Amino acid sequence: MEWSSWFALAAICVMGAVSPGPSLALIIRNTVGGGRGNGVATALGHGLGVGLYALITAMGLALLITKTPLLFDGIRYGGAAFLAWLGVKALLAKGGPAAAAEHQGGTRRGALEGFMVAFLNPQLAIFFVALFSQFVHQETGWREGGIMMLTAGGIDALWYVLVALGLSHGPVLAWLHRKASMINKASGLVLLGLAVKVVA
């Protein structure tokens, strides 16, 4: 892949990563509830999910997903159910120190949640098909697919790690802990709304 093409790809991936959505809501919730480690783990898991989707797309499989209604619907409804589950969980979560204690040691769970939110998002398939259509060709192999995977997943993970680190910084985290109940309810409503939107 030429440098000019890579820079164009990276720029679009940056715009996709910084767009607010269920991923940002999850990073905020897990950072507030579980601290820096949980937020970073969630960010890395999300980046892995995005990178895997990018690789699948680059190798031509995402096109199959979007053109196979049954498979695509399975992913879509699975993603909506997972978002709804996270939303209900956020609405029922307790705020303050009790919530932080409840989330301690949950980095593995945070990473899994981050991965699932990314990988069960059918909009990623559509996004990457549209994005990679100008970069993928018949001769695209594992090397170029790997570059696309590392670019998309790396940029996504880096952005959300920075978000988690920023939110977990001393006074910021203390303020967020005081507002944890409100943040959980807002995040829950956003996640439930997005779940409805995915199904609709």
TrEMBL record:
Residue spans crossing the bilayer: 6-28, 40-63, 114-137, 157-176
InterPro entries xrefs: LeuE-type (IPR001123)
A molecular function GO annotation: amino acid transmembrane transporter activity
Keywords: Cell membrane, Membrane, Transmembrane, Transmembrane helix
Protein's UniProt keywords contain Membrane: yes
Compartment annotation: Cell membrane
Species whose genome carries this gene: Aeromonas diversa CDC 2478-85
The name this protein goes by in its record: Amino acid transporter LysE
Top-level lineage group: Bacteria
Principal cellular location given in the protein's record: membrane
Pfam families on file: LysE (PF01810)
Transmembrane helix found in the keyword field: yes
Membrane-topology annotation of the record: Multi-pass membrane protein
Annotated Gene Ontology cellular component terms: plasma membrane
